[in-house]
Amino acid sequence: MNRGVLTAAVALIPLAAVTVAAGPLVAAPVAATWSAWWPLWPGFIAIAAATLYAAGRRPEQRGRALLRGAGAWGSWAMPALVYPWVGGRYGLPPLVSGGEVVAAEQISHWQERLGAYSLLGAAPIRDWGAEIGPSLALLAVQAAPLAAAALLWSLWRTARAPRA
Q: What are 97-106's contacts with CB under 8 Å, separation 24+?
C-alpha cells in the first residue's frame, strides 16, 4: 500500500463511517428525491474506489484526488445535506419524528413543496430574498448527480494521466 492510498483511506474512513451511521437519514431524502432505482450505496462505494485508485496511481496528486472524492461524496449525498436545511422553513416534516426516521414516502413531495416557494413557484416574484433560498436548494439537488459524475470522471482522468 503506497502513501497515496494510505492517506486517502485515512481521509475516507471517517466520511464513510458518518455516512453509514446516518444511514436512514441519508437514504430517506435521496430515495424521496431520485428514482427508486438510484444506486445510493453503490455510488458511495464507486466514489471511494475511484478516490483510492487515483490516489494510489498518482501519490503526488493525492490531495487533489481527496478533494475531488470528497466533493463527489457530498454531491452524491446532496439531498440528505439540503433537506434538513430547508425542511422546517417550508413546512416539511423533520427527518426524525418521535425517535424514528421518516420514510421516503412521507417526504416524497418535498421538491414540489420547495418549488412552490422558489422563483419557479408563481409569478409575480413576491420576495426575492425568501425565494432565492429554495431556488438554490433545488438547483443544488438537481445538479448534484452531474457534479458527482464530473468529479468521478476527473478522478479517473487524474489516475490515467501519464506521469510527468
A: 101/24, 101/25, 101/28, 102/28, 103/28, 104/27, 104/28, 104/29, 104/31, 104/32, 105/32
Of residues 120 and 133, more confidently modeled = 133
Better pLDDT: 110 or 81 = 81
| pLDDT > 90 in the chain, percent | 24
Q: What is the pLDDT of residues 2-29, one digit of tens each?
A: 888 888 888 899 989 999 998 888 888 8
Cell, residue 99:
425517535
Task: For the chain, give percent helix, strand, coil, nearest 5.
Answer: 75, 0, 20
CA dihedral 81, 48, 13, 162 (to 10 degrees): -120
CA distance 4 to 86: 37
DSSP letter for 2, please. Answer: -
H helix or E strand, kind and range, residue 97: strand 96-97
Could you tell me how many helices (H) and strands (E) the chain has, helices first?
7, 2
